[in-house]
């Protein structure tokens, strides 16, 4: 179950910092924060790749593609 308690400014800043430090696309060094920022308006992993710059590294999205797909699915579930 998800915690819906409103977060303090400090908690939000800590969460954002973690997102910026966590890398989703290893080849290109693109963070979770950047991928999350790109999700609004995206329908496919390719849309996210175009906006965030992911999927264009040496593995051609082999490693980050499935993670981005999951993030996009979760985003759509929550965005309604
Ligand atoms: S991990 Fe994203 S292109 Fe390789």
**Overall pLDDT confidence:** 93
Please indicate the percent range of residues in DSSP E strands (runs of 2 or more).
Answer: 5-15%
Tally of separate helices: 4
- Biggest sheet overview: 2 strands, antiparallel
What is the count of β-strands?
Answer: 2
pLDDT < 50 runs, ≥5 residues: none
What is the helix content?
A: 55-70%
Which kinds of small molecule does this entry bind, naming each only once? FE2/S2 (inorganic) cluster
Number of domains: 1
Layout: helices, strands, pairs:
Layout: H1 9-21, E1 23-25, E2 30-31, H2 32-38, H3 45-52, H4 64-79
The protein binds FE2/S2 (inorganic) cluster (FES).
Give an overview in words.
It is a single chain. The chain is 55% helix and 6% strand. Strand 1 and strand 2 form a beta hairpin. The chain has four helices and two strands, in the order αββααα. It has helices spanning 9-21, 32-38, 45-52, 64-79, and strands spanning 23-25, 30-31. 19% of the residues are buried. By secondary structure, it is mainly α. It has a two-stranded antiparallel sheet with strand order 1-2. The protein has one domain. It starts with 8 loop residues before the first helix and ends with a helix. The model has no long low-confidence stretch (mean pLDDT 93).
């Amino acid at each position: 179950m998800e915690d819906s308690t409103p977060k303090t400014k400090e908690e939000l800043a800590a969460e954002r910092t973690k997102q910026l430090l966590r890398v989703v696309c290893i080849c290109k060094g693109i963070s979770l924060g950047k991928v999350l920022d790109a999700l609004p308006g995206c329908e496919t992993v390719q849309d996210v790749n175009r906006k965030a710059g992911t999927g264009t590294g040496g593995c051609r999205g082999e490693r980050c593609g499935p993670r981005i797909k999951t993030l996009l699915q979760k985003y759509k579930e929550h965005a309604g």
